[in-house]
Design goal:
Belongs to the short-chain dehydrogenases/reductases (SDR) family. The protein has 289 residues and is of the alpha/beta class. The protein has helices spanning 2-13, 34-45, 57-70, 86-99, 124-144, 146-149, 165-169, 175-199, 238-243, 258-269; strands at residues 25-29, 49-53, 75-78, 106-109, 158-164, 202-208, 224-227, 230-233, 280-283. The protein has a single domain (2-283), classed as 3-Layer(aba) Sandwich (Rossmann fold), CATH 3.40.50.720. The chain is globular and about 55 Å long. The two termini are 25 Å apart.
Length: 289
């Protein structure tokens, strides 16, 4: 994958010698690990100033340190916190604007996890947490950043909200997650229609299928998220994973890597997609066609 990425960057270097996102300031939530961390790293390699947002301060700092120590002239700051806190949202936007010299150009609403359960056993807390995390938090971040996007300075600005095939097609055991992830598609389209005409803001959704992160690892591995002190187990039970081996539902017959997922986000954020707005890009290896 590193070799493939190097080849792509080589082809683009003549057209964008300073990087696809040179001069841009980007907020990436959930950037402490997985898709978010890879996105932050690729953005920085393409010249962006990256604001690394994650609830885990140690992981956020690890991503930031990787950027600033391994990328020549790599620029990043860590602003850890919980995206479900309005106070944190305001602080994140303020720090990002300061870091960007008064400007913010890109928001990637990536933070999230799953809290599965069948409909007849799902609690109100399970339901509401997913709505708050995957729909309300992105909305509040976009709203807080409005003064930095509703401007007419001729600079490209874009918002990318992360969805899922569960949001587009539904998924058994994920009524809460599926509903929230479909909701963020509607939010994206509304942003595109409201902020596109006067301010040129692009808004798109990237909907992922199976990407090899902690959300699709074996549940028995012990990964978890924490909600009000309650541990929420993440992943898929080994028995269920075994039945899905071979990825027969995916034409490419494999899961995607976090780097592949991040490259799709980079493409949407970049000038390569300057006339793409209000779109939902499915990154699934062909699943769902």
């Amino acid at each position: 994958m590193a070799e493939r990425l190097a080849q792509i960057q080589g082809h683009l270097s003549n057209t964008f010698p300073k990087g696809l996102l040179f001069g841009k300031t980007a907020i990436v939530t959930g950037a402490g690990q997985g898709i978010g961390a890879e996105t932050a790293f690729l953005f920085a390699r393409e010249g962006a100033k990256v604001v690394v947002a994650d609830i885990d301060s140690q992981k956020a700092q690890e991503t930031t340190t990787k950027i600033t120590t391994t990328i020549p002239d790599g620029q990043a700051i860590s602003v850890p916190g919980d995206v479900m806190s309005p106070e944190y949202i305001n602080r994140l936007v303020t720090r990002a604007a300061e870091f960007g010299g008064g400007k913010i150009h890109v928001i990637v609403n990536n933070a999230g996890f799953t809290w599965d359960g069948v409909i007849h056993k799902m609690t109100d807390k399970q339901w509401q947490t997913m709505q708050d995390l995957h729909t309300r938090a992105p909305f509040q971040l976009v709203r807080a950043a409005a003064p930095y996007f509703r401007v007419k300075d001729g600079e490209d600005r874009t918002i990318i909200n992360i969805s899922s095939t569960s949001g587009l097609h539904g998924n058994a055991g994920q009524a809460n997650y599926s509903t929230a992830k479909m909701g963020v598609v509607g939010l994206t389209k509304a942003i595109a229609q409201e902020w596109g005409p006067q301010f040129g803001v692009r808004a798109n959704t990237v909907a992922f299928g199976t990407v090899l992160t902690r959300l699709v690892a074996a549940k028995e591995d012990g990964a978890f998220a924490e909600v009000d002190g309650e541990k929420v187990a993440l992943g898929i039970p080994k028995a269920q994973k075994k039945s899905a081996e071979g990825y027969l539902h995916v034409p490419l017959r494999r899961g995607g890597t976090p780097t592949e997922a991040a490259m799709s986000i980079l493409a949407i954020a970049s000038p390569l997609c300057s006339y793409v707005s209000g779109h939902t890009l499915e990154v699934t290896g062909g699943y769902g066609i």
